[in-house]
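I am writing to request your help with a piece of structural work I have in hand. I am sending you one protein, given as its amino acid sequence and as whole-number tokens for its backbone shapes. Kindly check, if you would, that the fold set down in the tokens agrees with what the sequence suggests. You will find the record immediately after this paragraph:
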Amino acid sequence: MKQILPLLLTVIFAAGCGRNDQSETTAKPQSPWQVSRNTNGESVVTLDAATQRGMGLKLAPATASQLPQERKAYGSVLDPTQLSAAVADFIAARAAAEASQKELARLKKLSDQAIASTRDFESEQATAARDSAQADSARARFVAAWGKAMADRDDLPEFVQSLAAGDSALVRLDLPAGEMLQAEPTGAHVTALGDGTNSIEASYLNSVPTVNPQTQGRSFLFLVKPNSARLVAGESVTGWLEISGTPVSGLVVPADAVVHTDGRDWIYAQTADDSFTRKEIVTDHPVAGGWFVGGMIAPGEKLVVAGAQQLLSTELVSQSPPPS
């Protein structure tokens, strides 16, 4: 009996240890996601199908696109009252000159018929000459400030009225100092400060005859019409001047696909049914609905357009040190 008791206790102890080992094993469920790095050093998040559904992940292929040659510029929305005052002076001087010419023509006919005196005719000649000179001076000042193309517009009063009502916006874009264009821009798109993904089309009006005294760069005027973004006077904008040349090929990345961390921009591309690789992109070309990138993503590559932020959070959690 004394020999059987130690053997029985040994068996009971071993069985108890087995149960403890099994409970410890089952207490550590396998994670539904894993984070690793590929040969390029990029982060790869691996998720099972159920976890992907739970995160609400949605994919969309990167679409090929082309952009015209561009030059980046900075500027602001101009106050329409400045142009309005210049237009008023210009039109008033022109109207006075036209009225004087008509009166001069009338008096000449009367003078030829000996109905009007020579003195009245000569007086009107002097008035017409003065008004014509003042109109030429007003036009010269207007052209010097706003450009010949603006002065030649037939709809200046209506143009100013549209700006004053906010239906359109006049934007001045300045190139960096010393940078020149071989030809006039063909158009532009602009983004308001702090609204990098809302790209607004702008039509080219003319170059500004003077250099910006602050930036010392060449300047150009563009019209945003309709002003659906409700740009207001004094608002800073970033612009991309479209110029002639071979278009640049690239891809459009939806804005919802972009995440931000470490001061940079990234997207998640599907590299297997259960794997998503984080890739860095450069977001310096906004387009409608997203960003234009070149050479960073393959055409047709599927990107995470919903749930990208959850993927990033999952990745960052895996890098956090375990609680002590």
